[in-house]
């Protein structure tokens, strides 16, 4: 078969994601903090971008400079006597109590600079578990060899404060005997927090008992041999074995529950995250008003100086560069406006669909999916998904993520539907109002939901929602005393 070359014409359609379109899509899914970072970065990189009001500030600075220059010229014309008076006049005595600097502050100014700490010296990061333990280790009266072993032990701890490596492995790595590692381990275990570097929960609790000199044999036996019974709330065998009354056993259990089985958890690296809502919803008469949160977002404009430069005589390279940056700046401003417009439309649609929520609270949250909002505002479902990511809405009932308003549906007896989040709220209220000694089972809660919400919900669904709310089962919630 002979080989030959042929030319064929073929018409195809292909979606091309331009850099501008990719930027617009990226801006949709950015959180408020991330959006501020992107805008500040563009302000630094693009000379055609400027904040509104900066031009006015520049003119004010120029006028201030002119005023200062004029003032300096006037001062040059002052007589020698007036100059001496300006230098030597005791203005604080002249102004008296009307001075801008109080006498108390004047006393502070006489302090030495060493006594005044800087801002960095007054603000510090949250101490870590490893740093807290190493600080105590280096202050301990031990030799360099034991200090080296202690550093290895501290470096082998988990985030909860338990020893992850075995004594045998540590001894082998350090080239010392196991007895030496055990001895240093005992020292570390009595650092603050007490019970750190334990290998098991029993050892951790017993170390804390030793620290308070509590050697009650019953209490130690409960920890050594019956922690599982206490966890499963099997109290009757314990009453028979130790021949205790209920009140006596309750005292022992109070002591055990006061101990900390996770001594290192309080030194976790997690910090509180403060949320700034992207929009506010206010009730006005019988209607709701939506206000987008523009605080802190710079208002962008084209730099007037470079716009005038483009109109003058510039080289071909400079003109091409400025035009490119101008198009990028215009596209960014257009994308930001489109982002805010899309966010407003989505919030407006959510308020329309979830009107009962804004009137009565989470118990009246209706089922809603992204497709419903997308069809309502005539946008694609992916656009709604992006604009609701990492966005928060301040409502009369608190601050909620926009994703919170989208939830699955459960069928009611009358043919209508109720949102799954409303069912979760109902389950939480039922459990909060139960008798601690006789908690409701999942089967009982499902029957109560049928009476309250008229919803047919299976027991396993109640268990799934209860687990999502971090609520324990009825056997673990039950209190015998």
Automatic annotation (TrEMBL):
GO terms for molecular function: DNA binding; DNA-binding transcription activator activity; nucleotidyltransferase activity; sigma factor activity. Residues 320-479 form the RNA polymerase sigma factor 54 DNA-binding domain. It comes from the Bacteria. Residues 57-77 have a biased composition (Basic and acidic residues). Residues 47-77 are annotated as: Disordered. Belongs to the sigma-54 factor family. This is RNA polymerase sigma54 factor. It comes from Desulfoplanes formicivorans. The lineage of its organism: Bacteria, Pseudomonadati, Thermodesulfobacteriota, Desulfovibrionia, Desulfovibrionales.
